[in-house]
Design a protein that fits this description.
The protein is mostly helical. It has a domain at 115-330: MetI-like fold, CATH 1.10.3720. Helix content is 78%, strand content 1%. It has 14 helices and 2 strands; from the N terminus they run E-E-H-H-H-H-H-H-H-H-H-H-H-H-H-H. The chain has helices at residues 14-35, 53-61, 66-95, 98-103, 113-122, 124-158, 160-174, 178-189, 193-217, 221-229, 234-271, 277-286, 290-318, 323-330, and strands at residues 3-4, 10-11. It has a two-stranded antiparallel sheet with strand order 1-2. Helix 9 packs antiparallel against helix 11 (234-271). It is flat. The two termini are 58 Å apart.
Amino acid sequence: MMESNTAGNTVSEMPYTGAKERGLIGAGIHAASSSGGGTGAGAGPGAGAPAGTGHSLEAKGNPGNPGMRRTLLLSRLAAVGLPLLAGVLFIVLWQQGLFHKLFGLQKYQLPLPGAIAEALQDNFSLLLSYSGYTLAEAILGMLAGSALGFGVALLAVSWPKWGSSGLLLAAALNAVPIVALAPIMNLWFGDGIGSRAAIVAATTMAAMAMNAYKGMTAVDPLAIDLMQSYAAGKGAVFRHLRIQNSLPYVFTALKINTTASMIGAIVGEFFYSSRGLGYLLSNSIKIAQMPLGWSCIVVAALAGILFYLVVERLEKAFLKWHPSRRDAAGS
């Protein structure tokens, strides 16, 4: 019904319309609760759903449920057991000579796993010493190359006109083969550990430069505007925003460089070295001691895996604040 106030203005039918809407909403709630098996409006977690559905959903999502625990345990066992089973099957088939028959190889060309294991046992102390030497070259070179690459990325972000040429230089240096870098680095740094560390630095600089530059430039413009609205200087924006945002990219580059550094160190030892896994592998091939050569390959692979796992553990420790880390911890 229309009413008028003292000023002669017309007032709409708000009380009547509101009551009608409330009646319709109440009828909808009553219909939903009655169709879902509930006893009234808002009958709890199971309202609006078939009887027993709420309890079944809670049981499925509850980690303390025995069925859920069993499913998680089976999935974890499958994640570890299936690759392990595949590896054991591969070694068994190799030991039985299947690959020799399949590819027409002789045992001196591809030694059996038993012969490689025997060479590992007989030369364990030598392999351990040489792997430590190669790892030292890889770690020193990777740290130097990563630091140089990060510096190039800083220059490219701070002074784009001048720093972008540094990215091109890093990419060009990464395209140079290691066999071409080895004699140059040997002339510059001698035949000691410095020449192989320099080779590793040259091969790992580009990955860090590109990834760090991507992380420093992939910043939300709204975050930059917010910091500038608080009168933050360029140094504060770099320290608290750009460098923080680049850390996930930096650790990605470090994980890439773990394998690249081992390759650079071993290949560098092929040419100018008197120690290391690459030197031992080269000599083993020359004198046809293939089981010892393959044992060098196995030890190098294990050292590379260990190096990668250390960097991955450091990433988890330093990036607990990152959303990807929180999502992984929650799952």
